[in-house]
Structure formats: C-alpha cells, structure tokens
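Quick question, first post here. What does this chain look like in 3D?
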Amino acid sequence: MRVILVIFCMLCVSFESFAKVYDCFTFFNELELLKMRLEELNDHVDYFVLVEGVETHRGEPKPLYFQESRHLFEKYLPKIIHIIVNEKLLCNQNDPVKGFWDREHFQRECIARGLKNCEHLDIILISDLDEIPCIEMLEKVKKQLNFTKSKNFNSLRKYKKRKHKPEELARSTHNTLAFHMPWFIYQLNRKHNWDNGNEWVGTVATLYGNFKKKGAQFFREYRWHFPRMAKAGWHFTYMGGKDRIRQKLSSIVEGRDNVFSISDEEIETWIQEQVVVPIDDTFPKYVIENRDYLKSMGFIAECTP
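> Answer (accepted):
Ran it through. Tokens below.
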C-alpha cells in the first residue's frame, strides 16, 4: 500500500510539472496594466497569449500599441505569444451594436491562434487584460484542476447557446473555475460599489481539452455560472486619466458616441463618486512595491483618514 501511495504521489507531481499554464487576454492600450500583469504572473505561468487587433470593437482603426512598445517588455518577451488580428470585420449596418459585439467576440476567439501547441491538460486562463488573477489563488486553481478526476472531454456538449440554459452549459463543462475579484475604477485604489458591493467575475481557468471544444467566448459569456474562487484577483478598469477614459469609451462595445464632448468636470464627478481605500497587503505585489511611482503617475488616489 505504501509503495502504491508513493507511486501515486510521484505521478501527481510529475503531472503538475508537465501541465503548462497559458495566460490569455485581449489587449487595447493599457501598457501600465500590462506591466503589472506580466510582473505579477511571470513566475507562475508558462506563456502569455496577448491578442490585439487593428481596429477597435466599434470598428475604428487603432495602432498596434504592444507591437510599437515591445522594447518596454524585453524581460517578458520569451513568454509572450503575440497574436495580431488583422481581419477587419464587415458588420451589419442595420444593427451596429450587434456588429460591435461580433467584432469583440471574434478578437477574443483569436486567442486560439496562440494555443496551437497545447496539450489537453494544459491550463488556460481567459481574461480581459484588466482582470488580474491573484497568484496565491492561481496556485490553488492549478492544483485543483491538476488533481481533478473528471477529464472526460469527449462527453462535453457542443456550444449551442439557443438549446441550453447558461447554468446547464456551465455544469456540463468540468475542470473550470471562475475568479471572483473586487472592482476598482479610474484609479487603482478607488473601489467601485457595483451591484450593491458584489464582486466582479473576470478570469476563467479551464483545461485546453475544454477550450478546444468550446472556444474562448463560451467561457467569457458563461463565466458567472462556473464555480467561483473568492477574492481571486483584481479588476482594474478605466485607468490612466480623463483622456484615456474617453478613449476607452470611444472604443469598447459598452461605450458611447461623441465621448470627446464629455467635460473634464463630468468625468471628475464620476471619479469622486468612488470610494478611496488604502493600499495594503490585499493589493498586487507590484502595486505595493511601486506605490510612489504609481501615485506620481496618477494611478493611486490620496487616502485621507
């Protein structure tokens, strides 16, 4: 019995070291958040799959911000799989909002282009850039997915949105966990009291066997229905100041038209409505270690007693 137990433990350790972790996300222009994410996760993942397109979700042309700034990230380049989405989607002009969503979904599905060398049991993280997993929870997720027994990928149902309820689709997809995370908006320590204080569900972790059958958008769309890990990261959104807020609103599906007519005073009202909390040990290590620099850049608000 002791010999069997030793062999089992050896196999578990061998498997855990064999499975790779791919951190996959779409990217717009948030170079500061990219630096934070890479620094936070670099020692805990094997590859980063960074997807950026030549047009915004609203169909406007955009620069390839990461491509132009690669020199700033030399430390991480050996791990970065950079996917450029050159396709320009022609969307139905009678329903432009649907076209915006189609474009966003298509760009996210292009994550698959960076996963061609994956094995079935590799762990895939699917996020937006500004949804940063906590490394302690990521390590727990890696172990939980590695030791899960139900890996029967052939039994997974196909992604047919019209035939199954979201909770049924989620239950049919084993080896998948969602990361519950507090939401910070406009500055790193301005906590957004969204949905009566409920936390955001951002990153989803699954195995490549699942991903290959269902694609990135499935896990994004149904992330609220998977089992959740509490306090598992941070959602930092609309960072970088008023002009960057306008730029994001002009680019994303949920944005608005004529955003550059929004006054600084109106945006300042939005900012001041959020609660400022102190930077403490619940924040990413990068934020704690670089708080003075981030404060000088306007990314951290003064916290008065």
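Confidence is low (pLDDT under 50) at residues 3-15, 149-162.
The CA atoms of residues 193 and 274 lie 7 Å apart.
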